[in-house]
Amino acid sequence: MSNQEPVNSFSSRIVVLPEANIDTDQIIPARFLTTTTKAGLGKVAFNDWRYNADGSNKPHILNEIDPTEHRVLVAGNNLGCGSSREHAPWALMDYGFKAVISTEIADIFKSNSLKNGLLPVVVSPEIHDKLTQNPQQRVTIDLESCTLTLEDGTTVTFQVEAFARQCLLEGVDAMGWLLKRLPEIEAYEQTNNKAA
Amino acid sequence: MSKPKSLFEKVWERHIVEEEGADKPAVLYIDLHLVHEVTSPQAFSELDARGLKVRRPDRTFATLDHSIPTLAPDADGNRPYVTAQAKKQVETLEANAAKNGLRLFGYDAENRGVVHVIGPEMGLTQPGFTVVCGDSHTSTHGAFGCIAFGIGTSEVGHVLATQCLAQRKPKTMRINITGALQPGVTGKDVALTVINTLGFSGGTGFALEYAGPVIEALDMEGRMTVCNLSIEAGARCGMIAPDQKTVEWLRGREYVPQGAAFDEAAAQWLTLKSDDGAVFDKEITIDGSAIEPMATWGTSPDQGAPIVKGVPVAANEDEERALKYMGFTGGEAREVEKVDVVFIGSCTNGRMADLRAAAAIMKGRKVAPGVRALIVPGSEWVRVEAEKEGLHQIFLEAGAEWRLPGCSMCIAMNGDFVLPGQLAVSTSNRNFEGRQGPGSRTVLASPATAAASAIAGHVADPRQFMQLESA
């Protein structure tokens, strides 16, 4: 996908996975990484949490909810740690998520998520508690104002790196942004003796 | 007088094509881009969709490591791929490399191997470089004074197309390791201690610099192991200032300058160190003399402890969950942990120094009954060198398997995996739930500890075997 659909404001129910340190191996186990496309990874999102070895369902919340109704994943601290696999946000988005919320989100996973239009939202432990204590609630996320509004009306702001935010709001294509800088890149290579 | 700078700042500044601003990241130039079969196909597809080719094939090198079998092909040359899709993924990289004129270290190449083993081995990795790869353990190359970090597939596409990345400058943290390591303590034990000290996310947002007498005394392989595991504390990269050891390790390697040009380059490399008075956003000190052989007991790499101290009692819910998954109660000695599998290899510990350390323990001994020991060299070069030294004979005589190079059981996507419920002592980098196969349980440790555990049949402090040898 070269150009992302602009992301702005949406409301949705949340789903809570309370575990801390959910690594990208949990989000999508490595044996599913032999794919050469991005499509269809939602069915193996959290595969080993959701399915038995014979493929039958385990009792897990992600097998019970309607993904079209629960677009926001609330997870424990340090979400997305571990492997740099971009298959993790691809799988979460294909499952149906539009945003992930945690008290801390790992660097590479955050960067990968932003590039695909999956919004990473870091909140304080207090707000996280309010979310997990009412795990059925509906929240509103507004990227323009960078605000998260809980069902009880509490509104907090969150940080999104300015350029990533602009890319999401306006559908700016990050590769295109870099390609526009090819003259500067060539000049840098000449000056620094790095030309081909 | 100019402001004192850290090693990170010096390398970062040399790669700025366009400065960072409030509303835009810096455009960072990438000297070396390493590519493997798993995280690249969608990036090449993106280039195809835009009608682009790889901009700098001379700075882009590809290898096969993650999904390739480590068993030899059959008599007809068929390789035992785990699935047809794994084979297709390898063929996709072969086709993308050919189409874009990239050098691919494929099956026939004498240099094929795990991406973070072959980069330094060939001298592709050079001090002061920026190095990226679609793999979180790219931090390994920081051992040579590089800013080296893992990127996602979108960014792999960005580098293929432009040789640049849009990046914000991370914060800096220096980790000083004082004193001197005790005998039997290795770079892996240092790394597991650092992660245990920082915590699993303690490095998030930081570029780490490892410094102090313990780091200076480590060999290059040990330094690579330390930098490799930076990501396991959440850090984007970890680096070590180049010194004479770095220079001598690189001298004569295929891609470094040769002759007088090498000495000129080396003089330049040796200037890459943090100035006196350089300011870091955070600085911590660890007593290296107190580090002991480490083993993890939980399901994240920070959940480790000195082997002699046994398994700790859970301090919170997360630790309880980890102990439950691992089948430990907490408070027990490590000797009660019966081992099913020992894996020695990976980008963390698949180099010659690692195999020598394991062989020194295994020599003249036998792998305990019921233990499957798998030794996987990090590269073809390592495999050939190890065979020249006869290390493979030591492993085979001990009852271990000797395989072809690859990531193998570290990521368990090529058919080498640990069975459900089995306990593995592994020299790799992640003990996540199911990392080495669904339901697998992983204890991370050094090559010496893994070898000692293979012999003992339980998690074992390697020093008992070292003492036996000197007696």
From TrEMBL, chain A:
<dbReference type="InterPro" id="IPR015928">
    <property type="entry name" value="Aconitase/3IPM_dehydase_swvl"/>
</dbReference>
<dbReference type="InterPro" id="IPR033940">
    <property type="entry name" value="IPMI_Swivel"/>
</dbReference>
<comment type="similarity">
    <text>Belongs to the LeuD family. LeuD type 1 subfamily.</text>
</comment>
<protein>
    <recommendedName>
        <fullName>3-isopropylmalate dehydratase</fullName>
        <ecNumber>4.2.1.33</ecNumber>
    </recommendedName>
</protein>
<dbReference type="InterPro" id="IPR004431">
    <property type="entry name" value="3-IsopropMal_deHydase_ssu"/>
</dbReference>
<keyword id="KW-0432">Leucine biosynthesis</keyword>
<dbReference type="InterPro" id="IPR050075">
    <property type="entry name" value="LeuD"/>
</dbReference>
<feature type="domain" description="Aconitase A/isopropylmalate dehydratase small subunit swivel">
    <location>
        <begin position="18"/>
        <end position="124"/>
    </location>
</feature>
<comment type="pathway">
    <text>Amino-acid biosynthesis; L-leucine biosynthesis; L-leucine from 3-methyl-2-oxobutanoate: step 2/4.</text>
</comment>
<dbReference type="Pfam" id="PF00694">
    <property type="entry name" value="Aconitase_C"/>
</dbReference>
<keyword id="KW-0456">Lyase</keyword>
<comment type="function">
    <text>Catalyzes the isomerization between 2-isopropylmalate and 3-isopropylmalate, via the formation of 2-isopropylmaleate.</text>
</comment>
<comment type="subunit">
    <text>Heterodimer of LeuC and LeuD.</text>
</comment>
<dbReference type="InterPro" id="IPR000573">
    <property type="entry name" value="AconitaseA/IPMdHydase_ssu_swvl"/>
</dbReference>
<keyword id="KW-0100">Branched-chain amino acid biosynthesis</keyword>
<keyword id="KW-0028">Amino-acid biosynthesis</keyword>
<dbReference type="GO" id="GO:0003861">
    <property type="term" value="F:3-isopropylmalate dehydratase activity"/>
</dbReference>
TrEMBL record, chain B:
<dbReference type="InterPro" id="IPR015931">
    <property type="entry name" value="Acnase/IPM_dHydase_lsu_aba_1/3"/>
</dbReference>
<keyword id="KW-0028">Amino-acid biosynthesis</keyword>
<dbReference type="InterPro" id="IPR018136">
    <property type="entry name" value="Aconitase_4Fe-4S_BS"/>
</dbReference>
<keyword id="KW-0004">4Fe-4S</keyword>
<dbReference type="InterPro" id="IPR050067">
    <property type="entry name" value="IPM_dehydratase_rel_enz"/>
</dbReference>
<dbReference type="InterPro" id="IPR033941">
    <property type="entry name" value="IPMI_cat"/>
</dbReference>
<feature type="binding site">
    <location>
        <position position="407"/>
    </location>
    <ligand>
        <name>[4Fe-4S] cluster</name>
    </ligand>
</feature>
<dbReference type="Pfam" id="PF00330">
    <property type="entry name" value="Aconitase"/>
</dbReference>
<comment type="function">
    <text>Catalyzes the isomerization between 2-isopropylmalate and 3-isopropylmalate, via the formation of 2-isopropylmaleate.</text>
</comment>
<dbReference type="GO" id="GO:0003861">
    <property type="term" value="F:3-isopropylmalate dehydratase activity"/>
</dbReference>
<keyword id="KW-0411">Iron-sulfur</keyword>
<keyword id="KW-0456">Lyase</keyword>
<keyword id="KW-0432">Leucine biosynthesis</keyword>
<comment type="pathway">
    <text>Amino-acid biosynthesis; L-leucine biosynthesis; L-leucine from 3-methyl-2-oxobutanoate: step 2/4.</text>
</comment>
<dbReference type="InterPro" id="IPR036008">
    <property type="entry name" value="Aconitase_4Fe-4S_dom"/>
</dbReference>
<keyword id="KW-0479">Metal-binding</keyword>
<keyword id="KW-0408">Iron</keyword>
<keyword id="KW-0100">Branched-chain amino acid biosynthesis</keyword>
<feature type="binding site">
    <location>
        <position position="347"/>
    </location>
    <ligand>
        <name>[4Fe-4S] cluster</name>
    </ligand>
</feature>
<feature type="binding site">
    <location>
        <position position="410"/>
    </location>
    <ligand>
        <name>[4Fe-4S] cluster</name>
    </ligand>
</feature>
<protein>
    <recommendedName>
        <fullName>3-isopropylmalate dehydratase large subunit</fullName>
        <ecNumber>4.2.1.33</ecNumber>
    </recommendedName>
</protein>
<feature type="domain" description="Aconitase/3-isopropylmalate dehydratase large subunit alpha/beta/alpha">
    <location>
        <begin position="9"/>
        <end position="457"/>
    </location>
</feature>
